[in-house]
Give the backbone structure.
Amino acid sequence: MVQVHRTRVKICGIRSLAEALAAVDCGAEAIGFNFFDQSVRFLRAEDAAAIAFGLPPFVSRVGLFVNASPGFVRSVLSICPLELLQFHGDEDENYCRQFDVPYIKAIRHKNAELTARTAKGFGSAAAILLDAYVPSQYGGTGERFDWSTIPAIDKPLMVAGGLRADNVEALIEAVGPYAVDVCGGVESSPGVKSLEKMGAFVGAVGAADWSRKAVERLALNKVEGLVEEN
């Protein structure tokens, strides 16, 4: 039996309830709040909580942190309900797992060997996210990297970095990640989400998944003799 994976979509850098609800209506399964105070998309814990409590069921609320003190992470968790933590800095595994909340570890991808070695150091992670490596920047760069250099990773794989509606289908066809994480690629200006771009992005993800499903179903039918070879 052919089982085709459905690519999940996380939209990060949400800054208002209206944006969050629009992202959910477009089909996003996860909403990201950015708690890195050097980001244009920074959100206070109190504001994130107001959004989080306004979301409907079955939407994951994810908090993004960069080299934050454990006390700060705990203070956010005491205010804002989060199902997942996402660490984008230089955190090690002991740091990431101390909060007893499932976490995603972001790796700024330089090369296959280094990424594979780094990923192995986070056996407790719920997923590994690969983003573009830009010196002195911890994500949100809008830069993409060479997807052909992604190594095999024994964890659900998320990909970020320069994703937009016009290139996410190519990513899904080439890599088949568990999820994609988009931020700037669905914005009308830095920190301001676009309903049109969010809808186009989620639609492109769905189109890529259905295309793969059709190809794999045809392959299965050939194997089972339901389709004749020319």
User: Anything to note?
Assistant: Residues 84 and 101 are 6 Å apart (CA to CA). Residues 8-223 form a domain with the TIM Barrel fold (CATH 3.20.20.70).
